[in-house]
Amino acid sequence: MESEMKCNISQMWSPKLPKGLDLEISHHPMTMKHVANLIIALERLRAGTPESVLSTEFRDENLVGIMLESLVEEHIVVERRSAPPSQFTRTCQHQCSMTDSQKRDLVKDPNSMELHAVTLQAGSEDRKVRLTMSTYVHPSPSTEARPVALCIDQNLYLSCHMEDNVPTLHLETVEDKSSLQRISSDSDMVRFLFYSRVTGLNVSTFMSARFPDWYISTAEDDNKPVEMCMESENRYTTFQIRSKTPLTECRLAPQSHLRRS
């Protein structure tokens, strides 16, 4: 129901307005913006305006003009955030040694493009692979992970892609290493990336960036292939990593670790 509110301007501001001028408001303002506009208009009337009011010929148009000059304008501010980068960017490279949780070294099988976990005897240390780990900046800061690429013997990189509907681990030759400097998050090159999660002192797991919940792993038996597996499978998924001198100068970059529910 509309209510009426009358203000006798001649009583409130008699020094400023001619006798007999009343301001009638037919209904209460419905929003705070309307209230603010009304208050400002009344304050201007009380303080005096450039508008010359000399008689009762002061018309509605004059009052409307004064009120329009006092309108409170509503500005909508839209917060814009820059889109996160869409690339994994390499920051540095380290030479590392890598053994599984059973203290077995990784060696390349001479008869296949596979890595095997082997307990090496004294005097056969030269059989284990030389590992280079490249670290990357993740394109999404909200994702807690350290993306890495793993290289052996100069240009052989570990990769994970689908084979017979199962994510499988491979060794691929990369002739142009600059192609791994920046990796688009939606490109096929993501197969070379793994999320390294630290689980203890120098102990890490390596989950495929392309296939979540699939990990680099070793078998219970000695001299078996290194493969991808789900964490629930009966395989070893943790590795002891010992980094050596960086091969390239590392650039400062935000680092995080993968949180898994």
From TrEMBL:
<keyword id="KW-0964">Secreted</keyword>
<dbReference type="Pfam" id="PF00340">
    <property type="entry name" value="IL1"/>
</dbReference>
<dbReference type="GO" id="GO:0048246">
    <property type="term" value="P:macrophage chemotaxis"/>
</dbReference>
<keyword id="KW-0202">Cytokine</keyword>
<keyword id="KW-0497">Mitogen</keyword>
<dbReference type="InterPro" id="IPR020877">
    <property type="entry name" value="IL-1_CS"/>
</dbReference>
<keyword id="KW-0395">Inflammatory response</keyword>
<dbReference type="GO" id="GO:0001660">
    <property type="term" value="P:fever generation"/>
</dbReference>
<dbReference type="GO" id="GO:0005764">
    <property type="term" value="C:lysosome"/>
</dbReference>
<dbReference type="InterPro" id="IPR000975">
    <property type="entry name" value="IL-1_fam"/>
</dbReference>
<dbReference type="GO" id="GO:0006955">
    <property type="term" value="P:immune response"/>
</dbReference>
<comment type="similarity">
    <text>Belongs to the IL-1 family.</text>
</comment>
<dbReference type="GO" id="GO:0005829">
    <property type="term" value="C:cytosol"/>
</dbReference>
<keyword id="KW-0458">Lysosome</keyword>
<dbReference type="GO" id="GO:0010628">
    <property type="term" value="P:positive regulation of gene expression"/>
</dbReference>
<dbReference type="GO" id="GO:0005125">
    <property type="term" value="F:cytokine activity"/>
</dbReference>
<dbReference type="InterPro" id="IPR008996">
    <property type="entry name" value="IL1/FGF"/>
</dbReference>
<protein>
    <recommendedName>
        <fullName>Interleukin-1 beta</fullName>
    </recommendedName>
</protein>
<dbReference type="GO" id="GO:0005615">
    <property type="term" value="C:extracellular space"/>
</dbReference>
<dbReference type="GO" id="GO:0019221">
    <property type="term" value="P:cytokine-mediated signaling pathway"/>
</dbReference>
<keyword id="KW-0963">Cytoplasm</keyword>
<dbReference type="GO" id="GO:1901222">
    <property type="term" value="P:regulation of non-canonical NF-kappaB signal transduction"/>
</dbReference>
<dbReference type="GO" id="GO:0051781">
    <property type="term" value="P:positive regulation of cell division"/>
</dbReference>
<keyword id="KW-0666">Pyrogen</keyword>
<dbReference type="GO" id="GO:0042119">
    <property type="term" value="P:neutrophil activation"/>
</dbReference>
<dbReference type="GO" id="GO:0071222">
    <property type="term" value="P:cellular response to lipopolysaccharide"/>
</dbReference>
